[in-house]
Amino acid sequence: MSVYRRGMTPASECLFCGIVAGDVPADVVHDDEQTVAFRDINGQAPTHVLVVPRDHHPNAASLATAGQGGVDALVRTAAAVAAAEGVAEDYRLVFNTGAEAGQSVFHVHLHLLGGRSFTWPPG
Ligand code: 5GP
Ligand code: ZN
After folding, report:
1. What is the layout of strands, in order, in the sheet containing 91-94?
2. How many other CB atoms are there within 10 angstroms of residue 86's CB atom?
3. From the CA of 11, how far away is ligand 2's center (Å)?
4. DSSP E strands: which ranges in the chain?
5. Is residue 121 in some structural domain?
6. Is 35 in the pocket of ligand 1 (CB under 6 A)?
7. What pTM was computed for the model?
8. Which domain holds residue 57?
9. Dihedral over Cα of 30, 107, 65, 49: its sign
10. Res 8: pLDDT
């Protein structure tokens, strides 16, 4: 069992670092210098893609604070994937931050959901 507290996953133990490195298989739909995008293993919509930075950051605020334009890059990639998937007109982008907000993998990821209608508020 990990000795690391929730949210403190080191990059060496991180699932999404493993996907970025190509050590963990994933259905990758886009990759570039800063980002990798792959289909969620438990898709909640016809299009459900996770966009991650290559560098390990636990959440969106950490990525933003690093000051390298990483959040912009995630949103740009999400928009490009939405266009490629034919859902560019209507899609939802979500960053869950913290376990109580639904975060289960502590390598920041932007959920891109599209291809169906969505309700508000979310559950
Ligand atoms: P979170 O709950 O942290 O916002 O989102 C984590 C997402 O990662 C979930 O939607 C979950 O289905 C997805 N996920 C968990 N493990 C894997 C995996 O091994 N491969 C892929 N492609 N997605 C995963
Ligand atoms: Zn990571």
Report:
1. 28-31, 35-39, 47-53, 110-114, 91-94
2. 11
3. 5
4. 28-31, 35-39, 47-53, 91-94, 110-114
5. no
6. no
7. 0.94
8. 11-114
9. positive
10. 62
Number of domains in the chain: 1
Give me 30's structure tokens: 């886009």
What CATH number did the domain enclosing 58 receive?
3.30.428.10
Ligand 1, pocket-test mutation among 104, 106, 107, 113, most atoms within 8 A of CB: 104
How remote is the CA of residue 104 from the centroid of ligand 1, in Å?
Answer: 7
> Which atom, in ligand 1's list, is nearest to the CA of 39?
22
Pick from 41, 52, 93 the residue to mutate for probing ligand 1's pocket: most ligand atoms within 8 Å of its CB: 41
Q: What is the mean pLDDT of residues 78-90?
A: 98
Q: Is the residue at 5 inside a domain? A: no
Q: Which residue minimizes the CA distance to atom 8 of ligand 1?
A: 40
For 16-73, the pLDDT digits (tens) are 999 999 999 999 999 999 999 999 999 999 999 999 999 999 999 999 999 999 999 9
